[in-house]
Write a structure and sequence with these properties.
This protein is of the alpha/beta class. About 30% of the residues lie in helices and about 35% in strands. It has a seven-stranded mixed β-sheet, with helices on both faces. Strands 6-7-8-9 form a four-stranded antiparallel β-sheet, with helices on one face. A hairpin with a 2-residue loop joins β6 and β7. Bound molecules: S-adenosylmethionine.
């Protein structure tokens, strides 16, 4: 289990580099539909990052709690939550110990943004899914997003760039470039921040490793813990197809 986040020291930049409006426009309707269908009234979000999903969900789910391993992420999340007058309770925990701190059981557990890829391997995946099952009520719903690593691995070793993001504020342009280095089941993830000034360009990099979990890993780890397990390939509820789907979203029922 990785006790430190790949994004440690990068929370503020992570928050700036993500286009939250765009993400919520894509993920929001999927989550709303799913949680309404299952009459979800309490939810725990794992690896919540700067809290935007939890805050959004609290607009239609009564009790929302969220945790992250990174104190800086939680500081951002609490700030946004109080700005939005949301009633989300955030707490510091990691995937390995969150049931002790979760304070009760929930109708649903959510984890977005490929955060499960921060786990070190199949053993941790199974342990963390067991924790998820522990914090769910009978019939509770788990929604876990990963990117489709099988698609990435299928294209062979190499570098995969994610669309860069440019931000200009007060005459200073910042470019965020994210890319993956694919070799085997451990995938390098790199964030490059370029500060573009008249005097020149300076750069900061932030790197870590992810585990490329596959369909069989996630389904095997969920077996025996969740009665029903379904995989979607994207936020439009399309079925997961190994060779073409951009995402791999597990929707499991306890
Ligand atoms: C890529 S961000 C995703 C954040 C947010 N869920 C989203 O969708 O944008 C990954 C998050 O996982 C958190 N994280 C990494 N390892 C963790 C662990 N072992 N336990 C809890 N959170 C962890 C990081 O701190 C970070 O906030």
């Amino acid at each position: 289990m990785n006790r430190r986040s790949v994004l440690e020291g990068f929370a503020l930049d992570y928050d700036r580099m993500v286009d939250w409006r765009k993400r919520l426009a894509i993920e929001g309707p999927f989550l709303r539909k799913l949680f309404s269908k299952h009459a979800v009234r309490s939810l725990l979000e794992g690896a919540c990052g700067p809290g935007h999903h939890a805050i959004y969900l609290s607009s239609f789910i009564e009790r929302v709690r969220a945790f992250d391993i990174d104190g800086e992420m939680l500081q951002l999340a609490r700030g946004y939550s109080s700005q939005a007058k949301a009633k989300v309770r955030f707490f510091l925990a990691d995937f390995l110990n969150f049931p002790r701190k979760a304070n009760g059981v929930f109708d649903a557990f959510l984890c977005l943004g490929n955060s499960f890829a921060h786990l070190q391997g199949r053993k941790d995946l199974r342990r963390v899914l067991a924790n998820v099952a522990r914090v769910l009520k009978p019939e509770g719903l788990a929604v876990i997003h990963l990117i489709n690593f099988e698609l990435m691995l299928g294209e062979g070793p190499g570098v995969r760039f994610v669309s860069p993001r440019l931000i200009t504020e007060k005459g200073l342009t910042t470019a965020y470039v994210k890319f993956f280095v694919v070799n085997d089941r451990r995938i390098g993830v790199h964030f490059v921040k370029l500060l573009i000034r008249r005097e020149g360009i300076s750069q900061e990099t932030h790197s870590g490793e992810l585990t490329a979990f596959k369909k069989d890993d996630i389904l095997a780890a969920a077996k025996g813990l969740f009665r029903r397990r379904e995989l979607f390939g994207d936020y439009d509820f399309s079925r997961y197809v190994r060779k073409t789907s951009p995402q791999m979203i597990l929707v499991a029922r306890k």
